[in-house]
Every structure is written in C-alpha cells, then in structure tokens.
User: What shape does this take?
Amino acid sequence: MPTNHFITGTDTGVGKTYVTALLLAELRRRGWPAAAMKPIACGADGRRDARLYRRLMDNAVPLDRLNPVYLRHPLAPSVAARLERRTIHLRQIHSAFRLLTSDYRPVLVEGAGGLLVPVCRDYFIAALARDLDLPLLIVARLGLGTLNHTLLTVRQAQATGLRVRGVILNDLAGRRGLAERTNRLEIPRLTGVPLLGVVPYRARRLPAEIVDRLLK
Assistant: This one.
C-alpha cells in the first residue's frame, strides 16, 4: 500500500499544487484510493487548489475536510489570521487528516509555501509535517537558482527531524539550458536525497518513473 506523504515546495510558485494534482490523478488512474488535502489555504487560489483535489476525487469528500483552514488573504497563514482576527486551530487539521486517512490511502498533504512559512506563533509548516508524522516530498523548480533553495529546504527538513523521501523537479519554463541539464545531477549529489524525476513543461500526466519510485 502506498505511503501517505507531505508535499512541500522550495518556494511559493514552484508548482507543488500542480505536481500534487498530477500525482493524485496518476495514483487514482492506477486504482489506488488516493486523496489529497490542503490543510491551510490562503486566498482564492488556495481554495481553488482544494476544489481541484475534490474534483479529482469525484467530489466524494466535503471541501472543508480537504481544506479545514481557509483564510481570505493571500499571505502567510499567521499574518492572514492576524488580519482576519482568527485563530488557527491545529486540531481541525489533525481531525480532518484522521477522517481522510480512514477512507483513503495514500493521502497527499500539500503544505503552504515552504517549510518555514509561519502557521501561528513559533509554529511553522515543517512542524505540521512532523506532527502528522509524514515523509516529505520536495517540489523544486528545474531552472537556475534551485540548488540553493533545495539545499536550504532539505537541511531545514533534516533539522526538524523529517524524513525526505525525495525531490521532484518541475520544469516551469521549458528551457533546455546548462542549469536545467546539470541540476538533475547536482540535486541528488549535493543534498544526498533521491531525485524522483522531472515533470516536463506543461505535462498533463506525471512521468511513470516518479510514481514507480514512490510505490517501491
């Protein structure tokens, strides 16, 4: 049976929702009762991501279970909650996760931004992944600048006590330059964690090799 995973990005805008949706669709296409959730969504785009997962699951689960915490402002959760005079209750997230895992496997949990995005005072996304006891998948951009961001993310994950399952590189621009060619080799060499694969530019399906490696 495939393992539940927490999916984070090296930064905002690297395509972790896109990769999560492709992974969810491919797992379900292979017959697994997979689900995906976005515990904390900030702004309209975040809520749209949760609706996408719900559609891929045939609208079988209430939206509030896939996205138990929704904040209107497209900001870090702690900042948005303060502006909206709301409190983020972590027990809502844990309760939704338990309910989802009672019916689905694997469950993909998409974080908000990167590992050090603040959820509430002295509590970050990395701590949420740790408290849910999930191995980590890191989505990073394929192009220039990804070595620094990916190394920082891996080191923070390890410092938090998270087990990094691997890195998925997402081709955001469709370029085939020197950085794109060498990053595939440098990421596993520098981080010491596996490169699970590269998602091609505007791919409609996840490469089979990525899912095969996750299912091992």
Remarks:
- Residues 78 and 121 are 7 Å apart (CA to CA).
- The first strand starts at residue 5 and ends at 9.
- The first helix runs from residue 16 to 29.
